[in-house]
């Protein structure tokens, strides 16, 4: 197991926040941006925020217009995170991660790798093998039953860093309506699909997923408080 990326034995606990209601994307972005500002000033704890959004497409800084297949299907929000188009909606666990890399190490690539490792650990708890692919950020699952070489994305990752404070984060498909992805080319990748825990036969609750997210976060990043 890799060492958690915190350096001080007395590191402050990370605030663990869970919202059970649907949070509009713009409201969440405003809340997250404010938290990042306070964190950069030393006026707030680091935070992990678990939530769900109403259906929406978001476009990262690398999004290509051709990958927005059906622009009228859901609202579109152009955001400052990395990556291309993705979908958020009910049944998907969105995880916004606000950590201070000034203290944890100013290495964005290592940070993204640790996010990926975190999700792979969570999937393993549900007997799913998540894998990484060169040139494709996120976590993938092999689907040989659907065709030779078929791989589906189960978790997307898009981050932004401001003054070495991270925000945005991860979307993990638990049991969303996968047909809602039809209006975009997710992450600009046309020859692979998307999947979810439910699609893979794991009928688990969001609470069960949240519990494993917290345990595995603490394994990878350090202690939390709620």
Essential attributes:
single chain; 226 residues; alpha/beta; BirA Bifunctional Protein, domain 2; nine-stranded mixed beta sheet; three-stranded mixed beta sheet; 30% strand; globular
**Can you say what the CATH homologous superfamily is?**
Bira Bifunctional Protein, Domain 2
The number of E-state strands comes to 12
Assembly type of the chains comes to single chain
Largest sheet: 9 strands, mixed
Please, how many helices?
A: 4
* CATH arch. level architecture: 2-Layer Sandwich
The level of helicity is 10-25%
* Fold-level CATH name: BirA Bifunctional Protein, domain 2
Helix-strand string: EHEEEEEHHEEEEEHE
Report low-confidence residues grouped into runs of 5 or more: 6-10
| CATH domain class | Alpha Beta
How many structural units, i.e. domains? 1
Mean pLDDT: 92
Proportion of residues in β-strands: 25-35%
Secondary-structure class: alpha/beta
**Shape, please?**
globular
CA radius of gyration is 17 Å
Q: Give the termini separation.
A: 25 Å
Description:
With 226 residues, the chain is of the alpha/beta class. It has one domain (14-225): Bira Bifunctional Protein, Domain 2 (BirA Bifunctional Protein, domain 2, 2-Layer Sandwich). It is 24% helix and 30% strand. It has 4 helices and 12 strands; from the N terminus they run E-H-E-E-E-E-E-H-H-E-E-E-E-E-H-E. It has helices spanning 25-40, 101-104, 108-125, 206-221; strands at 14-22, 47-52, 56-59, 76-78, 85-88, 92-98, 131-133, 136-142, 151-162, 165-173, 193-194, 224-225. The strands form 2 sheets. Strands 1, 2, 6, 7, 8, 9, 10, 11 and 12 form a 9-stranded mixed sheet that branches.
């Amino acid at each position: 197991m890799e060492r958690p990326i915190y350096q001080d034995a007395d590191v402050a606990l990370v605030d663990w926040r869970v919202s059970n209601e649907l949070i509009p994307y713009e409201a969440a972005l405003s809340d997250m941006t404010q938290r990042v500002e306070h964190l950069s000033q030393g006026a707030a704890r680091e935070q992990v925020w678990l939530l769900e959004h109403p259906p929406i497409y978001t476009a990262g800084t690398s999004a290509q217009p051709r990958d927005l297949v059906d622009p009228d299907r859901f609202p579109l929000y152009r955001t400052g995170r990395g990556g291309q188009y993705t979908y958020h909606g009910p049944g998907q666990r969105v995880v916004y991660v606000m950590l201070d890399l000034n203290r944890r190490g100013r290495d964005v690539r290592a940070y993204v790798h640790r996010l990926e490792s975190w999700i792979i650990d969570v999937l393993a708890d549900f007997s799913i093998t998540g894998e990484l692919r060169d040139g494709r950020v996120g976590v993938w699952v092999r689907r040989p039953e659907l065709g030779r070489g078929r791989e589906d994305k189960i978790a997307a990752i898009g981050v932004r860093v401001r003054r070495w404070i991270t925000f945005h984060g991860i979307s993990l498909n638990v049991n969303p309506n996968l047909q809602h992805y039809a209006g975009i080319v997710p992450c600009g990748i046309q020859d692979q699909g998307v999947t979810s825990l439910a699609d893979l036969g794991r009928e688990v609750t969001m609470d069960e997923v949240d519990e494993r997210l917290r345990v595995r976060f603490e394994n990878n990043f350090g202690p939390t408080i709620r």
